[in-house]
Amino acid sequence: MQNNYISQIKVLILDDEIDFTNEISDYLKNTGFIPFSANTPEEGYAILSKYNIDLLILDVRLPGTNGLDILKNVKSLYPGIEVIMVSAHGDMDTVIDSIRLGAFDYLRKPMRYIDIQIAIERTQKYLKMQRNLAHAEEKYSLITSDIASKIGRHCIGKSKQIIEIYELAKTASEYSDINVLITGESGTGKEIFAKLIHYMSKQKDNYFGAINCSAISDALIESEFFGHKKGAFTGAISDKKGLFEICNEGTLFLDEIADMPLNLQSKILRAIEEKTITRVGDTKQIQTKFRLIAATNCDLQKMVDEKKFRLDLLHRLNTLHIHIPPLRERIEDIGPLFIDFTKEFSEKINKPIESIGDDVFVALEKYSFPGNIRELRNLAERAIILSKGNSLQICDFPLPVVNKISNTTDSNTKIDEEDAIHKTLEECEYNQVMAAEILGISRYALIRRMRKYKIDIKRNEAER
């Protein structure tokens, strides 16, 4: 059965030997490729400018010019084209120069058809990976490259849920006076969408301030929000602006809002309603106009019922509600996200990845991802580091995760916060720092939740 992907690849053979170009063209055509041939550089450049060539088979020696010069020009003008160099007079210096200039492979004449086939198959895998990455960026990106660079993401997803959430975020960005509450499990990308709202709004050139309410001590949290006057408390050696003041005409993002102390919630509510704040240790009121976006993985209404969260503050925060479903409920986003992360980290650590095994995507879609997108991102990074070659295979993933993937039968099983913490700690061999990173929370917040769910911290540390 003919590979549909092969039939889409356009190959140009540029060689001064007419018999050679005809022979290779016939072979490629019969194999399922779309071949083009040229016997002079001028003919070659004409074809390159007219057709979207994927692969160039280029002779090192051509009349009136050096094939290495053509290689250099082609990689400059058409960086997406891969090049296989061929020559009857090749030496090691020429091979090295070819690779340095960007050639993907090098073959010596005379060559067997099997040599050409193997070389093209090697190149083909790389081309397929590059196409997958480009396709994912083009098809699944919901945002402009400018916004993507600011929020630190290139690809959000293709699922119906994410597209609907994007439309809600776009609507929110058009009304700078409304507050937004974003809910969802840890690691689902709540801060990403908060940044998206900001950078799509008219306030995009003003400050975006983010604070994790569970990551700072109760003693300092009021100073962080409202600022303080010099001498207000021990260590206050100068006046300091708080986030409400810093984010004037911008956006303040409060992550883990459920962890905000109850006694501070009334002051936050007043700042939201009156758009004025008073620094700690001062009496002067300061006007500030900010948009507030809050996020939580908790059920705030339940916390209201339990007298742990103010109902009036919830109403103020919840002008527009955006809920981000967990990754296991939108498995069609796993593939494009993983491809995007693979590209990000392969470039970051300079380790090219040319292909990803099909079984990897099948396995990932079976996994429940208690850490959601953050865990997927970590998996991609670790797999690239652990991979022995330029292809990601299922064996490149951490053994605990591979076992979980293999044993998973229902990828849509609901996992609550307590269960997610248990599972993540187990997968990380009770390394709290790693587990907190996967869950998208601080280690301090993880310890608080472990105490909440009566998970034995000392026993876990002993087992680790």
What report would you give on this structure?
It comes from Pelodictyon phaeoclathratiforme (strain DSM 5477 / BU-1). The protein is α/β, with parallel strands linked by helices and 464 residues long. Helices cover 49% and strands 14% of the residues. Residues 1-7 and 408-415 have low confidence and may be disordered. A 5-stranded parallel beta sheet has the order 2-1-3-6-7, sandwiched between helices. It has a 5-stranded parallel beta sheet with strand order 9-12-15-8-16. The chain is elongated. The chain has 3 domains: 6-139, Rossmann fold (3-Layer(aba) Sandwich); 145-323, P-loop containing nucleotide triphosphate hydrolases (Rossmann fold, 3-Layer(aba) Sandwich); 329-463, Helicase, Ruva Protein, domain 3, CATH 1.10.8.60. The chain is built from 21 helices and 18 strands. Helix 5 (113-140) packs across helix 14 and helix 6 packs across helix 8 (190-199).
State the name of the first-level CATH class of the largest domain: Alpha Beta
CATH fold naming of the largest domain: Rossmann fold
Number of strands: 18
Characterize the main sheet: 5 strands, parallel
- Overall structural domain count: 3
Using only C-alpha atoms, the radius of gyration works out to: 28 Å
Assign an overall shape. elongated
For the largest sheet, list the strands in their spatial order: 2-1-3-6-7
- CATH superfamily of the largest domain, by name, is P-loop containing nucleotide triphosphate hydrolases
Low-confidence stretches: 1-7, 408-415
Individual helix count: 21
Distance between the termini: 52 Å
- Mean of all residue-level pLDDT scores: 82
How much β-strand is present in the residues? 5-15%
Helix content: 40-55%
Helix vs. strand class? alpha/beta
Examine the secondary-structure arrangement and name the CATH architecture of the largest domain: 3-Layer(aba) Sandwich
Domain Sigma-54 factor interaction: 155-385
Protein name: Two component, sigma54 specific, transcriptional regulator, Fis family
Domain Response regulatory: 10-124
InterPro entries: AAA+_ATPase, AAA_lid_NorR, CheY-like_superfamily, Homeodomain-like_sf, HTH_Fis, P-loop_NTPase, Sig_transdc_resp-reg_receiver, Sigma_54_int
